Amino acid sequence: MSAVSEDGGLRELHEPDASDREDDGRIVLRLDRIMVERGRSLNWLAAQVGITNVNLSKIKNNRVSAIRFSTLAAICEALDCQPGDILEYVRD
């Protein structure tokens, strides 16, 4: 990626990748807690969201490294919550 420098020339911008960042925290999914608070089962939520029980179980048990925004939005719609109710930043 390039940017214009103060003298009008182009300079390269360095975008840090994962190897440049210190591992000082992580995102933890707290879906299990919200499901208990709402009294909802895994089967019910999987049907509402339109994903398999296996995939929802992986999300619920924090065994995923990514989640699609469309899936997160469907979960929030079904459970009447906000993404921040499900996602938590934890320092290591």
TrEMBL record:
Q: Which domain of life is it from?
A: Bacteria
Note one Pfam family from the annotation: HTH_26
Q: Which portions of the sequence form the region Disordered?
A: 1-22
UniProt source species: Bifidobacterium olomucense
Q: Can you name this protein?
A: XRE family transcriptional regulator
Ranges annotated as biased composition (Basic and acidic residues)? 8-22
For this protein, what is any one GO molecular function term?
A: DNA binding
Question: HTH cro/C1-type domain location, by residue?
Answer: 31-86
